[in-house]
Every structure is written in structure tokens, then in C-alpha cells.
Amino acid sequence: MRSSAVVLFGIAAGTAAVVAPTAMLTRTGDAARSREVLFTVWGMPFEDRLFEDGYARGFEAEEPGVRVEYRRFPDVTAKYTAWHARGIGAEVMRIQVTDYHQMVERGMLEPLDAYIDDPADGMSEAAIAAIPPEMLDALRVNGVLYALPQDMAQIGLYYNRAIFDAWNAANPDDPVEYPREGWTWDDLRDTARKLARRDGGRVEVYGFDMFIWQWPFMNFFAQAGGTLWSDDGLTTLIDSPAGVEAIALFRGMVFEDGSFVPAFGEQQATGPHSRFAEGRTAMFLDGSWMAPSFQLRNPSLDFAVAPVPRGRVEAVCAGACLWGISVHAKHKRDAWRMIRWLVDEPQALRYWHTLRVAPPANLAVVNSDAFRRTSGIASEREPGRYLVPPMREEEFARYAEWLRYGMTPSERTGEAPAFVPVSLYQRALENEISRLLHDILRHPTDPTAEDALARAARAVHDIIDRDRAAKGLPKVERAANSN
Fold first, then answer.
1. Whether the Cβ atoms of residue 91 and residue 38 lie closer than 8 Å to each other
2. CA 215 to CA 150: how far, in whole Å?
3. Of residues 157, 472, 174, 146, the one with CA closest to residue 332
4. Over the stretch 139-170, which tens digit does the pLDDT of each residue have?
5. Contacts of 84 (CB under 8 A, 6+ apart)
6. How far apart are CA 65 and CA 35, in angstroms?
7. How many CB atoms lie within 10 A of CB 424?
8. How confident is the model at residue 481 (pLDDT cuts 50, 70, 90)?
9. What one-character DSSP code corresponds to residue 5?
């Protein structure tokens, strides 16, 4: 769900050997008589401080009759699929929202509605109301919930305040303002154009930068009024005027303004993340998880984060990590009790205070005073150093206040700007969007935006129709411009 670049706070990727959840240490005594909950996650080793020390051991303290077996895997989704084929599964599964609908379609996840509504063991009205409604809407499949959200990561506009200040000092008659809520696409383009600086052929300051991946396109596509999918989720609608408009924005910054120089194939050591961390980029579009990383990489970097500039529609692309239960889990009632505990305010706040990669999917926490500061993770080997830096309350306005914008209902529409792109075939669409961006950012007119979008839509539809044919379902009848 998050940046395809490998970053400190990103998702570690790889192919892991299939290990059955039954392959665990032999236990004796009281532990052997305990009800065992297998708790599976992905992540970085330092995240064990939250998931294992905080959550696994914390739930054991809450439920003395339960023993939590904690496992962290580099590619947990592949493991879930392999386990499901063998008829086994984990009690508490951390899931990427992009995989969620496929897992539901394959029958991998336990429906949660009966647990949520249970008179004795369910969720309170206040606990349900604390979850962003747009997130719950994204997770309902035919009206049924199969997971609850842990967080709601968002895309934002990082900016180097020192570069802005230097421009204003040198150009008092033509000042620029810091990015803020309410900025438009024109504000972004105009400011990026001014702040970009070259010395001959060498770029000294990048006016705007981003990795070439699907979230920026989906964000600006939605802001142009676009809808990614038809109501039945079987036709992508990116082949539309909104798609053309989003492409025109990117191409305009590259080929007309010269403020954006796309990085093709560059990784973290030399690409956009590093350029921003080194102080060479005025504005950088990326996810909420990058703020603590930039603090670690360059403590002297004078940066802040603002909501993404808006188009005709207020929209903020978001994603999530989820908690679900395998349909094959042995102790589903205990699994449910742990998930209910995980999304409750104290544990949601602990997630933010420890990792600060994304706001928890809990509005009570996000709107609380406790959200304004975090404790981070101190290094055990190097006293005084941090694996995740803390955020002091006086830093909140610079690093995290922007996150409330995406989760707060607009006075104009009554809906929060943040949206979670989901579908049964979301991964296929996002893969094609990434390819599309690599194509259209190499040349100002070839391929045309219309041709690139039509090609991407056809590729997605081919995947959908092949999948339906394998299931014995008919090919989808689509309009001429959606084939």
C-alpha cells in the first residue's frame, strides 16, 4: 500500500519459505494448556518493540488464559495464501488493504459482523464511531466487514522551509508562501517553477519531486473528479478526462516548467528521498511514513508537511494496514477479542506514539491532545540515539497536523477528503498505473495521454476477463472506450 521504494519505514519485501503456523516451539506446563493465538505481521525488526513487546505481551496480560505466538515475516501475504491452501491460518493477521478484497474473494478471512454485534463481546457504539466511516465503507464487501483498520496512511506535500526562505530573501518583490491547506494545482506549479534552479545542465534545486508510483496519480486523478472503478468493480474508469488532466499536470511540470525531473530506476540512495533529505528539493510528494525517516537521516533539515494541493475535488489518497482473522483459525473468539483490543484507543495511540508512520484509524485518538507528541523508539545499543525519533509537541504543526485535514469532514461536502482506493483487482490497476507513468513522463506527447490511459485500461480488463474465464464466468460487457 505504501511507496514502492524501499525505505526505512516501508514494507520489507521478499519471498519467504512456507512455514506452517503449527511449527512452533514445544511448550510445557501452563503455557501448553493456554489457548494459543498466532499473531502474524510484516515489518522492520525494530517494529517488534511495538508488535511483540507491546501488543503480543500486552494482550497476554489482559487475557491470562491466552498465549500469543508472535511471528514477523518479510512477505506475509504469500504465507497467508500458502497456509490457506493447506487449510490452516493465523488468529490475528496483519493485512495490506490492497490485498484485502482478493483475500475475501478467496474465502481466506472470517466475517466479523457477528463478533462486532455480539451483545456480550462486541464493539461499543463509540468504538465503531471512532473508525473513519470512509474506511469502513472501503472494507465492506457486500455489506460485510472482514477486517478492521489499524491505520490510515496519507499522501502529503513535504517542503524545505530553508529553500522557501532563501527565495524570499533574494526576491522580496516576488515572495512565495509555504504550502498550506487550500493550495491549488496552480499554486504548486507556480511555486515549483520559481524554486527550481539549474547551473547549466546540473539541477541544483528540484522545485518538485516524487517517486514514480501509483499514489500520486490516483490522488490527482480523484482531485480532477475521476472515479477509479465502476460500481461493480469490473471496469476501470481511468480512461477518462480526469486521467488526461492528471497526466497534463505531471507532464506540464516536467516538460513545460522544468521543475520536476523524474527519477527512473533510482533507489533510495540516489533518488527523490535522498535528494529531499540532502536539502536539494523544495517540495516532495510522499506518504506520512517519511517524516520520521527524514528526521533521522538529516536532523538539521528544516522541513514541514502540508496537505496535498487540491484540484476541483478535495481528495487525499490513503491506505491502511488491517487486522483480520483467518477462516481456518483455531481460536477465533480469542482472535476477535485481541483485534477489538488492538483497535481500541490505548493500543491505537501506542501505535502512533511508537512508530509514527501513519495516523491510527481512530478519530478519537487523532483529535486528542495525546496525538500531538510521540515517544519513538530509543536505540538499545546506542544511548541517546533513536530508531524512530520522538516528536515534541512544538513540532506537531510542522510534522503531523496536516494529517487531521484528510480525516476531517469538509464543511462544504460533509465528507473527509481521504479516500482508500480498493477493488478486487486493485493491485492489477496500480501496476498498470505505475507503467503508465513511466511511459508518459519520458516524452511530452508520445504516447498521448488518451492512448496511454486506454492501454492501461485494456491491460487491467484483460486480467479481469482472464480471471473470470478461469472461474467459468462470462466476459464483462464494457463500453467501447473501456475495452
1. yes
2. 19
3. 146
4. 999 999 999 999 999 999 999 999 999 999 99
5. 106, 107, 108, 326, 327, 328
6. 6
7. 18
8. low
9. S
Could you tell me which residues come within 8 angstroms of residue 191 by beta carbon, excluding any fewer than 6 positions away?
Answer: 176, 177, 179, 207, 282, 283
Residue 75 phi, psi (nearest 5) = -135, 80
* Long-range Cβ pairs for the range 259-262 (8 Å, 24+): 259/189, 259/192, 259/193, 259/195, 259/196, 259/206, 259/207, 259/208, 260/192, 260/206, 260/207, 260/208, 260/209, 260/210, 261/203, 261/206, 261/209, 262/212, 262/441, 262/442
Ordered structural domains, the chain, with CATH = 30-152+319-397 (3.40.190.10)
Name the maximum alpha-carbon separation found in the chain: 78
What is the residue-wise DSSP string for 300-338? T--EEEEEPPB-SS--EEEE-EEEE-BTT-S-HHHHHHH
Contacts made by residues 367-372, CB under 8 angstroms, sequence distance 24+ = 367/404, 371/396, 371/400, 372/396, 372/400
Give the pLDDT score at 269.
Answer: 60
State the average pLDDT for the chain: 92
How sure is the predictor about 343, in pLDDT bands with cuts at 50, 70 and 90? very high
361, 149 contact by CB (below 8 A)? yes
CA atoms within 13 A on the CB side of 76: 28
Omega into 447 within 30° of 0, i.e. cis?
yes
- Give the Cβ contact number of residue 430 at 10 Å: 22
Distances (CA, A) of 468 to 108, 159, 234, 472, 475: 19, 45, 10, 6, 7
Q: What is the rounded CA–CA span in Å between residue 58 and residue 129?
A: 24
d(CA 454, CA 174): 42
The residue count for the chain: 483
Dump pLDDT digits (tens) for 324-340: 999 999 999 999 999 99
